Structure formats: C-alpha cells, structure tokens
UniProtKB/TrEMBL annotation:
InterPro entries, alphabetized: Cation-dep_OMT, SAM-dependent_MTases_sf, SAM_O-MeTrfase, TrmR_methyltr
Family label: Belongs to the class I-like SAM-binding methyltransferase superfamily. Cation-dependent O-methyltransferase family.
Organism: Anaerocolumna chitinilytica
Positions with a binding annotation for Mg(2+): 135, 161-162
Quaternary assembly: Homodimer.
Name of the featured protein: tRNA 5-hydroxyuridine methyltransferase
Length: 217
C-alpha cells in the first residue's frame, strides 16, 4: 500500500456501496486471490467515466470480469466495453460473469494474448476507443503502448493501473529483489515514455498501486 493504511481505510469507508452481485464478485475474487482493482481505483474509474462520458471503452486484462462489470455500471447508456484476457482459468469465470448481467450485450470479451489482439484491433479503422484501461501483464506495457496509441482517439484517455508496484518502482534497483528487477526496469521505462511523449499529457497518481492518466493530444 502506497498511501497510509488508515487514510486509505477512511477514504474507502466513504465510497458508495456496490450492487450486491458486484460486491459478491469482489469478495469471491479476494477469497480466490484474483487481483482486481482496489476500492480507491474503483472510485477513480467511476469519476473518470462520469467526467469523460466515453462511447467505447477498451480494457486490457479482464481477469474474472469485475472491473468490466464495474465500469458497465457507471458508463453512459450508449457506451460499450471490449475487454481482453488470455488465461483460461480466468476466462472460464469471465465468460459466465460477463453474460449474467443486464449489460451483457454491451460487453465484448476477446480471448487471446493482449499484444496479438491489440495489433488486430489496431489494424481495423472501426476499432477506436476514447477510454482505455490497461490492467494486464505489467512487464508488457511498453510493448502494448504503440498499439494502444493507435487505438486511442485524439482527446481519449488512457488509464494504466499498478504503475508504482506497491511503491517499489520508486526504490533504487539495488534495493529490490533480483526477481522484481525486470518489472522495475520495464515499469520505469513505461512511466518515462508516458511522461515524455509528445503525443500524451500524463499525470501519475499514488492511488491504489499507482495509476497513470494520459490524454492523447
Ligand atoms: C490485474 S488482473 C486484471 C484485473 C481486472 N481488470 C479487474 O480489476 O477486475 C490482470 C489480468 O491480465 C491477464 N493477462 C496477463 N497477461 C496477459 C496477456 N498477455 N494477454 C491477455 N491478458 C493477460 C491476467 O491473466 C489477469 O487476469
């Protein structure tokens, strides 16, 4: 946790309640150790969607469908969501969860490796998104970025989760375990690219495990 635990608990105590089916899914994900968006990130996404009123949302990293369903609860009437996942164990649950909602016809689950799927989507003129939520394999974000930039409309918002890796990204590489060094290096490269790109205006927030907001200019 990047922000003091007590402050986070207090802020979260003020967040609005989830509909029962989402609250159950959240509890189930926690029980089964499926990494889903934290309360703080939920609140941020809800705010951003209300502010931006997107028409087409792309999510990279569905897991069991929690965040896609969460976004479907707060998106505008005419909005749709495309979400990408490749791990079968997660897909088994995502297929069921995403079908069993009143918004099912507005959520498209694409099964496959994110990089392949992003490339395929980027080749189609009809596949453009004004809100992209990146929440998949952290070490791959740099590889996803060129495709994501093609898929994002001018003025569109790219939200990337877990960019501070529980704060370890801010540490010297000598202060972290050898196992975490690759992800540390790649995430730093990703953050540097986002904050120094001529195409993007980016801010880094210490919400949850760290979130970046990038607008395509
Ligand atoms: C943090 S979880 C996503 C959580 C989800 N957004 C939520 O909050 O409910 C990341 C997901 O990305 C998936 N993932 C990892 N690498 C991937 C890849 N190369 N292609 C597609 N999905 C991938 C993982 O299987 C995992 O389910």
């Amino acid at each position: 946790m990047i922000v003091d635990e007590r402050i986070t608990a207090y802020i979260n105590s003020l967040s609005s309640e989830l509909p029962p089916y989402l609250s159950n899914l959240e509890k189930e994900a926690h029980r089964e150790e499926v990494p889903i968006i934290k309360k703080e990130t939920q609140s941020l996404l809800q705010f951003l969607i209300a502010m931006r009123k997107p028409a087409h949302i792309l999510e990279v990293g569905t897991a069991v469908g929690f965040s896609a369903l969460f976004m479907s609860e707060c998106m505008p009437e005419n909005c749709d969501i495309t979400t990408v996942e490749k791990v079968e164990m997660r897909l088994v649950k995502a297929r069921v969860n995403l079908k069993s909602t009143k918004q099912a016809d507005k959520i498209r689950l694409i099964e496959g490796d994110a990089l392949d799927v992003l490339k395929e989507l980027a080749d189609k003129e009809s596949e453009r998104y004004d809100f992209i939520f990146m929440d998949a394999a952290k070490a791959q974000y740099m590889n996803y970025l060129p495709e994501v930039l093609k898929l994002l409309t001018v003025g569109g918002l790219l939200v990337t989760d877990n960019v501070l890796q529980d704060g370890t990204v801010a540490q010297s590489r000598y202060g972290i375990t050898r196992r975490d060094r690759t992800i540390h290096t790649r995430m730093r490269e990703y953050l540097y690219t986002l904050t120094h790109s001529d195409l993007l205006k980016t801010t880094i927030l210490s919400v949850g495990d760290g979130v970046t907001l990038s607008i395509k200019e």
